[in-house]
User: Which sequence fits this backbone?
């Protein structure tokens, strides 16, 4: 074997080893969640999903409500902000918004929870799903915004010119052409934000109140969320609560996987 | 001779650059006019001044008048101006997220030019035929434009511009990035449009050979000024200016 092919071999083996090293933790976590989750379900019965007291239904319902509420609030704000920054890059407001959003990415999320605690929980006098949703929307906001902004900026200028050169208005070019071409990037951004927010525990500590013995009846009532339940049950001494935590983790992973696969299937990539 | 476009003392600045200087030009109606000049001479900017696309360039400032069929376009709605004077860009830019059909149909749709689907189908077919592309795409109208070659994509852009039935069609170096066979098809399509439909065509080119081959009139622009303007054959055989002669010989470019 000559020196060149030997070098190539060494290179390939190194790359392969490093790749394996990189993906191992991901698969280890995923595998243990699936294994322990299934174990928990077989030990305690599949019924714990729909059980209110001593089950995980309140957490699942809470997470479901939070995901819809926070996505509606967060994505609308982030989409508009991202659109604005990408479309008017030279305005002062855009520049400030850009810096602010990048800083918001780095703010500890527990602080966002505390902010909402002061602004909403204290004045209303009680915890609520709405407070949790607003806190999660704030977590989601910078992620989605940055992705929307980058997806729009990556659309080549020639397509905008094509739109204008057949008499399209600015709004028609923006929504019919630029957003249309960038739709997959925008959808990925929304998913990233959604996933980030749904996995968060810290912003909920001060906002939703961990009410897990009853179902929430309105967005103003206290509620629970799967990550918060996992966090608190994992610290309990009883085995039963550990099982509930594993079961909750498995449900969370399955729901994420489904949402990701469906959205990515629905929105095709635009090649150019 | 009637004039489709009359440019009067047009000056354009892009930031600090004085790109076009006191341009005076009369574009005859129903003929092909070439704006010819070396890179950076301002020919693309001149073209974009005649449909107000120039305003989209950051820092652009326009002074002077551009009259299209007697009306100053700078006092009108820019979107309507661009609907009536459509343009094909230098690089093929069909909308990648739409089908071939929708790429042609989008103009008539947003400007509500047709009443029903049948009329739209007819218009799309007509546009693609005029762009000499119909036979190549008629069986795959719902495919994305990315299945087409670069030259076919450029003809699709021509069809998209034609679907608005413009009286004036502008092309910015339409064949600069296209192979010779496709270039010839585009040139033939332009000539046929002028002959059969009476459209006025203005195109930008940096190759003298193409200007002479395709156009009836040539405006030679150099350094932001129109050096010479006249009938193509006369200008080619008998250049009235030293710069034109040099450019025709390929000494500046």
Assistant:
């Amino acid at each position: 074997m000559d020196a060149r092919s030997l070098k190539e071999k060494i290179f390939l083996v190194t790359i392969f080893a490093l790749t394996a090293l990189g993906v191992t933790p991901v698969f280890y976590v995923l595998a243990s969640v699936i294994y322990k989750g299934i174990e928990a379900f077989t030990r305690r019965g599949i019924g714990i999903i729909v059980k209110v007291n001593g089950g995980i239904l309140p957490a699942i319902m809470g997470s479901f409500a939070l995901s819809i509420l926070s996505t509606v609030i967060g994505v609308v704000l982030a989409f508009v902000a991202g659109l604005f920054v990408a479309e008017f890059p030279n305005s002062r407001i855009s520049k400030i918004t850009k810096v602010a959003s990048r800083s918001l990415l780095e703010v500890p999320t527990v602080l966002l929870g505390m902010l909402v605690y002061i602004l909403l929980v204290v004045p209303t006098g009680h915890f609520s799903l709405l407070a949790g949703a607003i806190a999660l929307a704030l977590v989601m906001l910078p992620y989605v915004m940055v992705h929307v902004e980058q997806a729009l900026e990556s659309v080549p200028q020639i397509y905008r010119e094509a739109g204008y050169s057949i008499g399209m208005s600015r709004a028609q070019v923006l929504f019919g052409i630029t957003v249309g071409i960038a739709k997959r990037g925008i959808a990925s951004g929304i998913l990233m934000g959604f996933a980030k927010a749904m996995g968060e525990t810290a912003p909920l500590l001060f906002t939703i109140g961990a009410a897990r013995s009853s179902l929430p009846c309105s967005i103003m009532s206290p509620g629970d969320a799967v990550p918060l339940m996992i966090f608190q049950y994992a610290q309990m001494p009883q085995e039963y609560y550990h099982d509930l935590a594993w079961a909750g983790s498995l449900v969370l992973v399955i729901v994420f996987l489904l949402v990701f696969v469906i959205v990515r299937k629905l929105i095709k990539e635009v090649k150019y | 001779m009637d004039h489709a476009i009359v440019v009067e003392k047009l000056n354009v600045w892009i930031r600090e650059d004085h790109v076009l200087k006191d341009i005076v030009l009369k574009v005859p109606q129903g003929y092909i006019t070439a704006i010819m000049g070396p890179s950076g001479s301002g020919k693309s900017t001149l073209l974009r001044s005649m449909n107000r696309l120039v305003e989209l360039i950051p820092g652009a400032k326009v002074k002077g008048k551009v009259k299209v069929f007697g009306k100053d376009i700078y006092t009108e709605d820019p979107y309507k101006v661009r609907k009536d004077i459509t343009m094909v860009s230098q690089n093929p830019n069909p909308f990648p997220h739409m089908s071939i059909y929708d790429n042609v149909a989008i103009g008539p749709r947003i400007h509500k030019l047709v009443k029903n689907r049948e009329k739209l189908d007819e218009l799309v077919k007509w546009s693609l035929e005029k762009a000499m592309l119909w036979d190549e795409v008629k069986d795959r109208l719902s495919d994305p434009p990315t299945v087409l070659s670069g030259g076919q994509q450029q003809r699709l852009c021509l069809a998209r511009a034609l679907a608005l039935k413009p009286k004036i069609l502008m092309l910015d170096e339409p064949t600069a990035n296209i192979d010779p066979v496709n270039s010839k098809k585009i040139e033939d399509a332009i000539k046929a449009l002028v002959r059969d439909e009476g459209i006025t065509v203005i195109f930008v080119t940096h190759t003298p050979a193409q200007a002479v081959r395709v156009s009836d009139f040539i405006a030679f622009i150099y350094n932001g000024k129109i050096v010479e303007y006249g009938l193509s054959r006369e200008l080619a055989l008998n250049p009235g200016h030293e710069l034109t002669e040099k450019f025709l010989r390929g000494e500046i470019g």
